[in-house]
Amino acid sequence: MKCCGKCKKEKLFIDFHKNKRRPDGYKDICKSCYNQKSKTYTAKWYQKNKDKHYKDTRNNSRKCRNRLLPIKDNFLKGKSCHKCGGDSFKLVPRINGRHVAFYSCWTEDRYRERLKESKVICVQCIGKESWQRRCG
Ligand SMILES: [Zn+2]
Ligand SMILES: [Zn+2]
Fold first, then answer.
1. What is the pLDDT of residue 15?
2. What is the gyration radius of the CA atoms in the chain, in angstroms?
């Protein structure tokens, strides 16, 4: 008989996995406790890999930003705000009053096309717009 280190129950040796490194030749915990442990281990492993998968998607969208952002910078070079005509504030390309968003699946060409359709506005004018909306 051997006492299981986990459930603290006396069990027959046949209920323990063999482990040559142990002095008595058996694992410290019984088979059913060991199975439970490996089950939670699998669940943890799965969780970890799900996180990793999530991280990969995030990495992908960052890669996409790195790929598409220079196109925007290039597009905005030499442009000025269509409202105030200035370019001292950060410029934002918009379509129908909405920021031109991009998706990770977009090709450079597609994003370039979208930018061509957009109107460039500076953040100061955007700020005025929302201020007017609030007070008007
Ligand atoms: Zn046990
Ligand atoms: Zn402006």
1. 95
2. 31
Instruction: Report d(CA 120, CA 96) in Å as an integer.
Output: 11
In this prediction the pTM is: 0.53
In a 13 Å sphere around the CA of 28, the CA atoms on its Cβ side amount to 5
Do 114 and 100 meet the contact criterion of CB atoms below 8 Å apart? Answer: yes
**Residue position matching structure tokens 């960052």:** 62
Separation of CA 29 and ligand 1 centre (Å) = 5
Q: Where are the domains of the chain?
A: 34-135
DSSP 78-101: T---TTT---SSPEEEEETTEE--
Any idea which ligand is nearest the CA of 35? Answer: 1
| Pick from 60-69, 101-110, 127-136: least confident | 127-136
